[in-house]
Amino acid sequence: MIEVRIVQSEARVWLEITTEDKKGDYLVNQIIKRSDLAFIIEGDDELIFKPENDIKINADKFVNEFDPYSIIMTTNLFHEKACSQITEKFESEHPFPDFDD
Questions:
Q1: Which ranges of the chain does DSSP label H, i.e. alpha helix?
Q2: How many domains is the chain partitioned into structurally?
Q3: Considering the domain boundaries, does residue 82 fall inside one?
C-alpha cells in the first residue's frame, strides 16, 4: 500500500487505495481500488461521508473522527494482526452484555 486517499464526485465518496506490484527489476504496476463509502451510515440511513460536503470535511471525518475499530470494520487498510489487536482492545473496553441473566 503506497497511498490512501478520499476521492469524491458530486454523487459519490470513495476510499481509494493504491498498491504496487513489481514485475522483475524494472516494471512497477500500480493497482488503484476505489471503495464506495455510501454503505457507512449513522442513524436512519444518514451518510457519514456526504458527497455534498467539501472533500476536506470528508477526509477529516475519516482521519480524525473514525475510530480504528470502525476503520477495520469498513475497510481493508490494516493487516490481519493489527485487526485482531484493534478488535481485542475494543472488545475489552466495550464488553458485550450478558443476555443469560
A1: 55-60, 68-74, 80-93
A2: 1
A3: yes
